[in-house]
Design goal:
CATH architecture of the largest domain in chain A: Up-down Bundle
CATH topology of the largest domain in chain B: Butyryl-CoA Dehydrogenase, subunit A, domain 3
Shape of chain B: globular
Number of domains of chain B: 3
Distance between the termini of chain B: 33 Å
CATH superfamily of the largest domain in chain A: Butyryl-CoA Dehydrogenase, subunit A, domain 3
Helix content of chain A: 40-55%
Structural class of chain A: alpha+beta
Strand content of chain A: 5-15%
Distance between the termini of chain A: 59 Å
Number of strands of chain A: 8
Number of helices of chain B: 11
Order of helices and strands of chain B: HHHHHHEEEEEEEEHEEHHHH
Shape of chain A: globular
Radius of gyration of chain A: 23 Å
CATH class of the largest domain in chain B: Mainly Alpha
Strand order of the largest sheet of chain B: 1-4-5-8
Strand order of the largest sheet of chain A: 1-4-5-8
CATH topology of the largest domain in chain A: Butyryl-CoA Dehydrogenase, subunit A, domain 3
Strand content of chain B: 15-25%
Radius of gyration of chain B: 21 Å
Helix content of chain B: 40-55%
Oligomer: heterodimer
Structural class of chain B: alpha+beta
Order of helices and strands of chain A: HHHHHEEEEEEEEHHHHHH
CATH architecture of the largest domain in chain B: Up-down Bundle
Chain lengths: 395, 376
């Protein structure tokens, strides 16, 4: 055993021992309970204790620098930690856009003061952030955004409207793309941090086709934002925004369903559709489509693993396909589940349907958002064909 | 691309260099035009480089680099459609001997496979679809051995083979997995007659008739009547080998098509600038990436030899078979008229893809097996 190996096995022992002492056994295997599209922390003593323990240790953001409250671990140590957590059904309580998108971006582009102020609360899971990107007139063409921030000497004055702002009903802070100049489309954009408690900020939830309210509109009316809240230089916002979207796509690509029917489709189908004497599903066409879907799902998951492995030696071009491949996996599953459940798969409310059936129906609808947010399916195809394959724009 | 160790990296680079230099697709075209199924000179070079012995253990003259190593070479060869007995002899027959052969059989044949001095093949198919349980060919016990009677089709490199591993029924009836036995039969045995099958990929296939062919007890590989399960494991290795070759073909079909779209101009516009084509290529690229993950997973699982190997092989055969057919179909479509001509290479790719998809069970059969594996 070389020195590195022995250090890693010492770390494994340390991690195991710490988890043993700190992870509440009542939470084993319940990691999916609190993360749908908007993160909200479940109530209860054990949940609070686990969040505090992980926050103090910094292991919810294991590879972030210890000086800002992160775990300060190497990638290898973080992998060992993940491994040890999986073994006992533990999970990180620090999931959300603050940890997956905002934090990594601020660590790259923020000033020392900004990092000191904003990173530690993220590591402790105390602050929920929301993403002020899309506007009614700026969806796929995000850079056409109009929310403006005027220089008023000691502060910026922000006016405009954001939409599809995930989780903004619960957020304390918003990282926001604003227009600081009309001279240039992309270079006129800046990246601003806005306290949601500032006068002039108004949040109106949007009801989706699933009946859920996971997104909202955010209105800014004469909102004063201190100048120290500008990240990067004036006009540097677009560069930062794109970097953050890379983190976003990596997260989205690996996302899996957390509510509704979670068992393998073949198991559910046997229950709802029935089988012949040999145990084959009674509907051969459905059966064939379930097979192809399961193979796609597996291929997608293997690609997520491959990208993680390859990332150790450099950027992997396979990263670019994860979001679209993930959309197909998720949405096909939702559609198949509805077909499998038949009359019971289209329930909305009432005791004639089980909770799982109702959730599955709503989830089928909710999942349609997966190929829209974070850059639509079509925008992802543009990115692949232009950036990876070098197919140029139509002149 | 998987993270490779130094030996694997060298093997891959060596294969890439050799294929590019010695056996590009133009070499396959020359072989086809000459009416040959493979170039014996190139096969000798392949053997000299030791690639025929990649899965053969070191004490039998091989390098024991496993299916991971063989997969890298097959993938590179797949890119340029290199025709040779490497797959059937160096991977499939070698694996069958390793897994099922006696010490004496291994000692006799593995060194010859490894140095290329003998070509071995597998004769299992009889009907229109691959299905070993449906074997009707009989092997009747007589005297101190067996008498084999029946006909095999789609025997890969059957004309070039020095010996064949032949699946025959020692008991039971066609349709039963029980009662199958694998025999090693020299190609020049009395009663063996071979005729070439002219398939549209212009590779080497044969129909082989066995007319009361005698084999001793020492011709049996493994247990009498119990060949089905161990042979399925060997065939799973073969399926993964096919997936490796198909992955190389997919990659090349994609790269060639992309390069063409960047040069061909219509309406005063380079084709690569049309969004309809950009999005189609983005989708093919996505499927190509998933196919690669599936193949790399399969070779790892096969070499690990655990429970996951069969499922990984089924996944690879079905998934990459589908992607390969789609990719080569799109290669023709996106090339337009030129893709339809024999003088252009696109036709070679779609033909080879179709042949590989049907070999040792097509995608639909692999999907059926997946469903049974998961108990539905």
């Amino acid at each position: 055993m070389n020195i590195q190996d022995s250090q890693l096995s010492a770390f494994r022992a340390e991690a195991r021992e710490w988890l043993e002492r700190n992870f509440p056994k009542s939470l084993a295997g319940r990691g999916d309970a609190y993360f749908d599209i908007s993160p909200r922390y479940p109530e209860g003593e054990d949940w609070a204790a686990w969040r505090k323990a992980m926050g103090d240790k910094g292991w919810g953001t294991p590879t972030w620098p210890a000086e800002y409250g992160g775990g300060g671990l190497t990638r290898q140590e973080a992998a060992i930690l993940r491994d040890e957590m999986e073994k006992i059904g533990a999970f990180t309580p620090m999931i959300g856009i603050a940890q997956s998108m905002f934090g990594p971006t601020l660590l790259e582009y923020g000033t020392e003061a900004q990092k000191q102020r904003h990173i530690p609360p993220v590591c402790r899971g105390e602050i929920v952030w929301c993403q002020g990107y899309s506007e009614p007139g700026a969806g796929s063409d995000l850079a056409s955004l109009k929310t403006k921030a005027e220089d008023k000497g000691d502060h910026y004055l922000v006016n405009g409207q954001k939409i599809w702002t995930s989780g903004s009903m619960h957020a304390q802070w918003c990282f926001c793309l604003v227009r600081t100049s009309n001279d240039h489309k992309h270079e006129g954009i800046s990246f601003l941090l806005i306290d949601m408690a500032t006068p002039g900020v108004e949040v109106r939830p949007i009801t989706l086709i699933s009946g859920k309210q996971t997104f909202a509109e955010v209105f800014f009316t004469d909102v004063k934002v201190p100048k120290e809240n500008l990240v990067g230089g004036l006009r540097e916002g677009w560069t930062i925004a794109k970097r953050l979207m890379q983190f976003e796509r990596e997260g989205i690509g690996a996302r899996k369903m957390t509510v509704g029917e979670l068992r393998p489709l073949d198991v559910v189908a046997k229950e709802y559709v029935g089988t012949d004497e040999q145990g084959r599903l009674d509907d051969p066409d459905l059966r064939a489509r379930i097979v192809r879907h399961q193979m796609w799902e597996r291929a997608h998951r293997l690609t997520v693993e491959r990208v993680a492995e390859e990332a150790k030696t450099g950027p992997s071009e396979a990263t670019s396909v994860l979001k679209n491949a993930g959309s197909i996996a998720l949405q096909t599953r939702g559609e198949l589940l509805m077909e499998i459940m038949g009359h019971r798969g289209i329930g909305w409310e009432g005791e004639d349907y089980t909770q799982t059936e109702r959730d599955s129906a709503r989830q089928m609808l909710q999942n349609k958002a997966h190929s829209i947010y974070g850059g639509t399916y079509e925008i992802q195809a543009n990115i692949i064909s232009k950036r990876i394959l070098g197919m140029r724009d139509h002149q | 691309m998987a993270v490779l160790n130094e030996e694997q990296q060298m093997l891959r680079d060596g294969a890439l260099d050799w294929v590019t230099d010695r056996a590009p697709v133009s070499a396959f075209r020359r072989t086809r035009d000459a009416g040959e199924v493979f170039d014996t000179g190139l096969w000798e070079e392949i053997a000299r480089m030791g690639w025929a012995g990649i899965v053969v253990p070191e004490d039998h003259g091989g390098s024991d680099f496993g299916v991971t190593g063989m997969g890298l070479v097959l993938e590179e060869m797949g890119k340029q459609l290199v025709a040779s007995p490497l797959f059937i002899s160096g991977l499939v027959a070698a694996t069958a001997l390793k897994e099922m052969g006696s010490e004496a059989q291994k000692a006799e044949w593995l060194p010859k496979i490894a140095d290329g001095s003998a070509v071995l093949t597998l004769a299992v198919d009889e009907g229109t679809r691959h299905d070993t349980a449906k074997t009707a060919m009989t092997a009747e016990a007589s005297g101190d051995g067996y008498t084999l009677s029946g006909t095999k089709v789609q025997v890969i490199e059957g004309m070039a083979a020095d010996a064949m591993l032949v699946l025959a029924r020692t008991s039971g009836t066609a349709g039963e997995a029980e009662g199958l036995t694998l025999f090693l039969v020299p190609a020049d045995a009395s009663g063996v007659s071979r005729t070439p099958l002219k398939t549209f990929d212009h590779r080497g296939f044969a129909k082989v008739a066995f007319d009361n062919v005698r084999g001793g007890k020492d011709a049996v590989l493994g247990a009498v009547g119990q060949a089905h399960a161990p042979l399925e494991k060997v065939l799973d290795v073969a399926r993964v080998g096919i997936a490796c070759e198909m992955l190389g073909m997919c990659q090349q079909a994609f790269d060639t098509t992309l390069a063409y779209l960047k040069t061909r101009s219509q309406f005063d516009t380079i084709l690569a600038q049309f969004q309809a084509l950009q999005h189609r290529m983005a989708e093919l690229f996505m499927e190509l990436q998933l196919a690669r993950s599936v193949v790399e997973h399969a070779v790892r699982e096969i070499d690990a030899g655990g429970e996951g190997a069969a499922e990984a092989a089924v996944l690879a055969k079905a998934f990459v078979g589908d992607v390969s057919n789609k990719m080569t179909r799109q290669m023709i479509q996106l090339h337009g008229g030129i893709g339809m001509t024999d003088q252009y290479d696109a036709g070679f790719y779609i033909k080879r893809s179709r042949v590989l998809e049907t070999t040792f069970g097509n995608s639909a059969q692999a999907c059926e097996r997946w469903a049974r594996m998961h108990d539905y």
